[in-house]
Design a protein that fits this description.
Blueprint lengths: L4 H4 L2 E11 L5 E2 H4 L7 E8 L2 E5 L3 E4 L3 E5 L4 E6 L3 E10 L7 H4 L4 E3 L4 H11 L5 H16 L9 H6 L1 H10 L6 H8 L3 H12 L3 H19 L4 H7 L5 H12 L3 H5 L12
Antiparallel strand pairs: 1-8, 2-7, 3-6, 3-8, 4-5, 4-7, 6-9
Length: 271
């Protein structure tokens, strides 16, 4: 039997550390931390307080809570004094993480007696090349993230049902994908597919594909020297003008200003 997207998920850890942080955290993320914004993040404070401004909300960080921050969502960080925190910057190979903003409102869960130990396991093992270290990190990440996917809307069977569709979008979002093409993967009508997808993921298939293109364009703007026109075509937009209008509407800033890491004036970029 073919494994589904939840069973295949693995994590690639870019950075994991526990450290004291002070005034250096008062900055626009794109100014000093732009090479990190394409990673998902886990934060756990042991002391102090801080604030994170995201594209769609503001989070007040306090000790004892675990915070999951989706990739490309952080705009600015603020701190008054000092804090001590664990942080993990990671990428995951499952489309579920691309859908997280639409599947859940939950960006914060309460830590427990295991939390600090789980972060320590990741910090101590993520750079090691041994099989046991790898398995420890994967297991610790699963446990830390599990509560973020708990709740009445976290329907595992619905995710499995759309497995082939999510995989297909992941591999082909840069191309012109039709609704009939996606519906055929599930052997259902186009209208029934579209309604079912939106009911489960709280976003239309078309908007989800645009979200995937938007996220990839953000990565290319910060990590490559490609022109904005080249990026527009590379991620699947029909022309530069439509891409620029769409990017500005969703991010609150032009693609050019995003590349130059200027702070948006709005924070309503959820599709």
């Amino acid at each position: 039997m073919r494994e589904h997207i939840l069973e295949l998920n693995t994590y690639s850890i870019a950075f994991a550390e526990r450290r004291d942080i002070g005034d250096e955290w008062n900055h626009v993320i794109w100014d000093k931390d732009h090479h990190h914004i394409g990673y998902h993040r886990l934060y756990f404070l042991t002391s102090g307080r801080a604030t994170l401004h995201l594209v769609d909300r503001t989070l007040d960080l306090v000790p004892g809570n675990i915070y999951f921050i989706p990739a490309f969502s952080v705009l600015q960080s603020e701190i008054d004094g000092e804090m001590n925190k664990y942080y993990v910057h990671f990428q995951a190979n499952s489309p579920v993480f691309s859908l997280y903003r639409f599947l859940s409102e939950k960006y914060c869960v309460k830590g427990d007696s295991m939390t600090e130990n789980l972060f320590n396991i990741i910090v101590d093992n993520y750079t090691k090349k041994t099989q046991d270290a790898y398995l420890k990190v994967q297991g610790a990440m699963d446990l830390l993230l599990s509560d973020f996917f708990a709740g009445p809307d976290a329907d595992r069977h619905a995710l499995i049902k759309f497995d082939s569709v999510l995989r297909y979008i992941e591999e082909n979002f840069r191309k012109n994908i039709s609704l009939s093409e996606l519906a055929a993967l599930m052997n259902i009508s186009t209208m029934y597919f579209s309604n079912s997808f939106k009911q489960v993921f709280h976003i239309s298939p078309k908007q989800y594909i645009l979200h995937k293109r938007l996220t990839e364009s953000q990565r290319l703007l910060l990590e490559t020297d490609m022109s904005i026109k080249e990026i527009a075509y590379a991620v699947g937009f029909e022309n530069e003008s439509y891409f620029s209008e769409f990017f500005s509407a969703k991010i609150g800033i032009s693609a050019r200003k995003f590349r130059n890491r200027e702070l948006p004036t709005t924070r309503d970029s959820v599709l």
